[in-house]
Design goal:
The protein is mostly helical. It has six helices and no strands.
Length: 173
């Protein structure tokens, strides 16, 4: 069970990092990488769900739906001149992901370490909101958005590593 959880979180980490790389670079190749990231994220979540209690599994369902919506949004974003439609999908995925992380933090399957990892994921989402708002500013916005996206990427990495550690601790106890 520990090995399965570790593999699941590894898929989630890879998927998360690939998704976030789109915020740093942009362009069609980054969108394709982000779509692949959403797929990896979904696969990892589906594997992780089996190792969690009912609250955790319910939260992961929200995250899985968010991954599907995010992948669809990225696919739509590949089509020129329909970015506003993709943005609607991204916002919907963001909201579902936020709800999923908040519910995930309440899971009894998570040790204190893992719950602090979820907090890092929520902080990373806050940075995402800040990046979206700052991105409106001409000239300086792009630089600040890149910096915030890199900071978010680091927080997501360490957040999921803490979750992985907390899951392993819970299973061992």
């Amino acid at each position: 069970m520990t090995n399965q959880s570790t593999k699941a979180v590894t898929f989630i980490i890879i998927g998360s990092l690939l998704q976030l790389s789109n915020g740093i670079n942009g362009g069609w190749s980054s969108l394709l990488v982000a779509i692949f990231g959403f797929i990896m994220f979904y696969v990892g979540l589906s594997r992780l769900k089996t190792s969690l209690d009912e609250k955790g599994a319910g939260a992961v369902k929200f995250l899985m739906i968010a991954a599907i919506i995010g992948a669809v949004g990225s696919a739509i974003d590949l089509i020129p001149l329909v970015g506003i439609v993709a943005s609607i999908f991204y916002v919907a995925a963001f909201v579902l992901q936020l709800i999923g992380y908040i519910k995930f933090k309440a899971s009894d399957s998570l040790a204190v370490t893992a719950k602090s990892g979820v907090t890092l994921l929520l902080v990373a989402m806050g940075l995402g909101i800040l990046a979206a708002l700052v991105g409106i500013i001409p000239l300086l916005g792009a630089l600040v958005v890149s910096i915030l996206s890199i900071a978010s990427l680091i927080l997501v990495l360490f957040g999921w590593i803490k979750i992985q550690d907390g899951l392993v601790t819970t299973v061992k106890e």
